[in-house]
Amino acid sequence: MNIEYSFFVVLITMFLSYLFLFSFLFRITRVNFYNPVVNFLATRVEPVSSLVLPLGNPLFSSLLFALGLRIVGLFVAYSDSYSLIFISILSFVDIVNFLFRIMFYAVIGSVILSWVAPMNQHPIAELVNSLSDAVLSPIRKYLPSMGGLDFSPIIGLLLLNLVNSVLISLIKSLSGPLL
Questions:
Q1: What total number of domains does the chain contain?
Q2: Which conformational region is residue 57 in: left (phi greater than 0), alpha (psi within -120 to 50 degrees), or beta?
Q3: By residue range, what is the domain housing residue 52?
Q4: Spatial distance between the Cα atoms of 41 and 107, rounded to a whole number of angstroms
Q5: Are 125 and 146 in contact (CB under 8 A)?
């Protein structure tokens, strides 16, 4: 297959799968639906996944559609070198890693926004704060602020990295015989 064509297919399927993953992430973290970014994804992206995969639940439809797109993209690029099982596992690992990276960067973005623009009403700032609150709220229940300092982002970042690395290692070790 032509290298430029396969690169283009991988790029397009990666972009589309990430859109569906954002839709999944916004739904699972219960971000404000009236945010323009969330509203755009909910009204334009989720119906596509529900039409293609009519599972009844847009949450799982978005996730499975993103996984399918990622598998197709990687299969186009690497079908000569790797098996479909390996490409499927690689796609699943990529999706799990992407979701954790987004949450990780949302926490970092929330920390930076709290220093630079604490009460910003911009839709992206609200979205970043909502995503990070999904990670930091359970930690803040057990770890109160100490003298005006909030250590929950540090613990949240450590936990996100720990859970991500454990999940990726678990998936790789369970799929070892399949590869």
A1: 1
A2: beta
A3: 3-178
A4: 21
A5: no
Angle in degrees, CA 161, 35, 59, rounded to 5: 60
Residue 179 has pLDDT above 60, yes or no: no
**The two three-digit tokens of residue 44, written as one number:** 């334009």
Phi, psi values for residue 149, rounded to 5°:
-100, 135
Q: Count CA atoms closer than 13 A to 140's CA, side-chain side.
A: 11
Residue type (1 letter), 107: V
Taking each helix axis from N to C end, the angle separating 84-116 and 123-142, rounded to the nearest 10 degrees, works out to: 90
Amino acid 150 reads: D
pLDDT > 80? residue 111: yes
pTM: predicted TM-score of the whole model, two decimal places:
0.86
CA distance 179 to 168: 15
Contact by Cβ (8 Å): 69, 118: no
d(CA 68, CA 66): 5
